[in-house]
Amino acid sequence: MKVGSRRQRLDTYLPFTSSYMTVLASAGVTPERMLRSTAEKDPKFMLSDEIANVVGRIDLLGYDVLNALNAEVDRSPSTNYQDLLRGFAGVIRTGGDMKKFFQGITDHLFQKRALQVQSFLDSLGIIAETYVLMLIAFPLMLIVMLSIMASIGGSLGGVDVFSFMYLMAFILIPICGLMFLFILDSMQPKG
Q1: Which of 37, 42, 117, 148 has the fewest Cβ atoms within 10 Å of its own Cβ atom?
Q2: Which whole-number Å values give the CA distances from 140 to 146, 173, 191, in the listed order?
Q3: pLDDT tens, N- to C-terminus, the chain (191 residues)
Q4: In 10 A of CB 4, how many CB atoms?
């Protein structure tokens, strides 16, 4: 998996993983059991495969929880995931309140996600307005003008007006529509 796509996957599923860990912390589950329980969940919805690396270090390599978390920090491309792991290790080391830590970080991650979604929706609104203007209003106005020109016998640079209308209706507008689809697809947040 490439670093960029792995970072994106980590950042996408981190709020849900953190939320699950918040529930476990609220129930008073020990840190190691919390990691094991998270590692057993479906990787489609959480970072269970990433957490399984931490559990693997504990089981197979004999690391303690703190060293396993720190080793995972070193190999993670996501700063958000690194912050969660560092904070988790810090709470374990100091004996702090895990419930408060996970509630705080989960709230922060979901607020960050809400801002990303809001930013995307604002951009989507601008794209929608541009689409309506360029591919609905302007072509409609142009076809009305070209129809009037055709009725009085005009031409566009030696090209028949009806040929230009067919070109616009069956080639230019669909190509522009496809361009808008590609723009939307590239803008859409993944995950």
Answers
A1: 42
A2: 10, 11, 37
A3: 576 788 888 888 899 999 999 999 999 999 999 999 999 888 777 888 889 999 999 999 888 999 999 999 988 888 999 999 999 999 999 988 999 999 999 999 999 999 988 999 999 999 999 999 999 999 999 999 888 888 887 777 777 888 888 888 999 999 999 999 999 888 877 65
A4: 9
